[in-house]
Amino acid sequence: MKVTVVGGGKMGLPLACVFASRGAEVTVCDVDSAKVASINAGVCPFEEPGVDELLAEGVKKGVLKATTDTASAIAQSEVVVVIVPVMLSDAREADLTIIDQVAEIASRSLKPGSMISFETTLPVGGTRRLGGIIDKGGLRAGVDYDLVFSPERVKSLYVLAHLFKNPKIVGGITPASAARAEEFYSKYLGAPVINVGSLEAAELVKLAGMIYRDVNIALANELALFAERMGLDFEPIRAAANTDGESNLLLPGIGVGGHCTPVYPYFLINEARTRGIPVELAELARKINVSQPRKVLDKIGNVKGKKCIVLGVSFRPQVKESAYSPAFTLVTELNQRGAEVTVHDPLYTDEEIRKLGLEPGEIEGNEIIVLNTAHDAYRDLDFARLAKAGLRCVVDGRNLWDPDEVSKHGISYVGVGRVPRW
Ligand SMILES: NC(=O)c1ccc[n+]([C@@H]2O[C@H](COP(=O)([O-])OP(=O)(O)OC[C@H]3O[C@@H](n4cnc5c(N)ncnc54)[C@H](O)[C@@H]3O)[C@@H](O)[C@H]2O)c1
Asked: What is the total count of domains within the chain?
């Protein structure tokens, strides 16, 4: 089975390695030639547990290689899996430029009788639209080739662990396309497969999961604020509420980041608006979560002229990914309020922080610390020493520290859903 994976990134490369380890002959296509060279040398270009070993083995056995020539790889494959990014435009619309380019290449190179499966998260109707682009080359989706949508539902640092465990959702343009996808993923991925039938159903599975998470976090943020105002610590309440076998309240926090949760709800919201379908809860969750960094900062009042540092650029602990990180909103808000703001992250060099448009700084010597990311490196800060160096206030956006431990050094403590210590 000759398989092409278009997009050799954090999701595409592990997937390609698994296909190769289960007997496929895999070509990874990427526009980044440095990435292609690294893959061909058997070295994973990013950190992802277990992928280094699988990649080295695949390259050594000659069943896994990479190229920048997407057209010729597609032309030689029976199955094509596409997992390139779709981000948000400034107008919060899905930016389909890259994936459209891939579909256009497929329109010129896809073999009759092959199957193309899109795994990138798409708006409902997105795969059918891509099929329209491919069909311009002369083949007809569902007749001359199989068109499939199968959302990727794993996350960085847990990719291999989750790839086999999370059921793989598939839907096709015809029942035969969906059945073929079911067969392919069962054999070459090895995860349980759920065939939901149509392309649109499979697309909605992914968006529904994302919106569930966004709404859940918005609810946790709202309940956390209520608890705090009532003089209650929310965390033990949340944990207790979650013991009834029905509730699964997620953690409140200073903001939602990443290229998934704050992005994909808009795919559905935009479509719903166009069609006049009410999705008020999804919209409200976005509104609550977008305003969360500002609301948490409001608790500390005037910051004008104060030296302040935001800890953590990453949107997730221990992961060097900053897409839609609340750090950006926090810095903008603090600047607008007149603070002198710098940023620190143990995973980023000063140069990398500057490239993101932020100013790097040292943890010591600030009057205010705002924690955005619960990196392990921040767990055991020496608050006695920081207090001596001028620290007066901590905004613990991830409830990482013990409030009493912080406040005993004369530092004000503000968390999320925790009774402040002034
Ligand atoms: N990262 C996650 O945690 C995650 C989780 C679930 C689903 N996803 C889905 O996977 C998609 C990709 O995410 P990722 O983390 O792998 O991104 P990534 O940025 O790590 O990888 C994308 C790769 O695509 C390559 N690329 C860009 N344009 C290309 C083109 N025209 N042809 C070939 N390759 C091209 C890039 O060079 C890059 O190597 C996301 O858009 C999302 O839909 C991601």
From this structure: 3
Atom of ligand 1 nearest to the CA of 46: 20
The answer, yes or no, to whether any atom of ligand 1 lies below 6 A from the CB of 250, is: no
Look up the CATH number of the domain holding residue 137: 3.40.50.720
Residue 422 located in a structural domain: no
Any ligand 1 atom below 6 A from CB of 85: yes
Q: 275 with 308, same domain?
A: no
Q: Taking a C-beta distance cutoff of 8 angstroms, is the pair 394, 336 a contact?
A: no
Residues 227 and 346 in one domain: no
Residue-by-residue DSSP string for 237-303: HHHHHTTSSS-------S---SSSTTTHHHHHHHHHHHHT---HHHHHHHHHHHHHHHHHHHTT---
Task: Report the predicted TM-score, pTM, of the whole model to 2 decimal places.
Answer: 0.94
> Does 38 share its domain with 128?
yes
Q: Are residues 256 and 334 in the same domain?
A: no
Q: Which two tokens stand for residue 180?
A: 């073929």
Q: Which of 191, 220, 240 is the last residue of a domain?
A: 191
pLDDT digits (tens, 9 = 90+) for 175-233: 999 999 999 999 999 999 999 999 999 999 999 999 999 999 999 999 999 999 999 99
| Residue 119 CA, ligand 1 centroid: distance in Å | 10
Q: Which amino acid is at 132?
A: G
Distance from the CA of 100 to the center of ligand 1, in angstroms? 14
Counting ligand 1 atoms within 8 A of each CB, the residue from 11, 105, 261 with the most, and so the one to mutate, is 11
- Ligand 1, atom 10, lies closest to the CA of 120
